[in-house]
Amino acid sequence: MTIRGYRVPMAFSLLVWCALWEVVGRLDLVSLIPPFTEVLGAAFEVIPSESFAEAATITFQAFGIGMALALVVGIGVGIAMGRIPAVGHLMGMWVNIFESSPLTAIVPALMALLGFGLPTMVVTVFLFSVWVIALDTQVGVERVNPSLVEMGRSFGASNRDLYSKIVILAALPELLAGIRLGLIRGLKGVIIGQLLIAVVGMGYLFELYSRNFLMPEFWALLIVVFAFAFVASEAVAYFERKVSFYATSR
């Protein structure tokens, strides 16, 4: 954004929204929105607390396991769909169906099958993130220049070298885009799962703060979750920009 020829940092818009939030909170226009300064003060109380540490441990454990499974399965399925036409035709429809479906409706069924613990949260993260990873990986693999594969085979490359040193590297821009979207959706999945369970992790804290009308603590926790999602997304986006030249060179 530019104003009179001067480039304004994107952080400036964040300061504007924080100031607007403070004004709305001070005027007491909406009872559920406290002043931003109170939210910041609550953040310094929530983050060092033992309950936050316990909730964060449970949440990150479920998120980490679910995302690891989604990466392994999603990248593997995506490569198979991109390289083997029969697998692409067989799996393509189902992957697109699950990608476009409201998966939140499945969480109650998962709770009935797996209970109210870690397995439900892990499966929820997996289901929210795996499909977009598989689809973006498939797109990247399908765009790999066939001459690169033929060159690798002509030089005697094994299948392992062919995929690890040619196919995956050439498909890296789309693969990283899928991982970035998968991280965001996985975080949505773990929070939604915990909110529906409402007995563990961040979901328990959200439910506790909202039920007792502790709105500064509620908004402080929400900001922490949003900040983590933004940092995780931007970290992957950084590497995505670093390898963006692959997309033009193909």
How would you describe this protein?
With 250 residues, the protein is mainly alpha-helical. The model has no long low-confidence stretch (mean pLDDT 82). The protein has a single domain, classed as MetI-like (MetI-like fold). It contains twelve helices and two strands. The chain has helices spanning 11-27, 36-46, 50-83, 85-100, 107-114, 118-142, 146-154, 159-170, 172-197, 201-211, 215-242, 245-249, and strands at residues 2-3, 6-7. The protein has a two-stranded antiparallel ribbon with strand order 1-2. Helix 4 crosses helix 6 (118-142).
CATH architectural arrangement: Orthogonal Bundle
Beta-strand percentage?
A: under 5%
Q: Taking all residues together, what is the mean pLDDT?
A: 82
What is the end-to-end distance? Answer: 32 Å
Helix content: over 70%
Spans of at least 5 consecutive residues whose pLDDT stays below 50 are none
Could you give the count of β-strands? 2
Q: Quickly give the structural class.
A: mainly alpha
Total of domains: 1
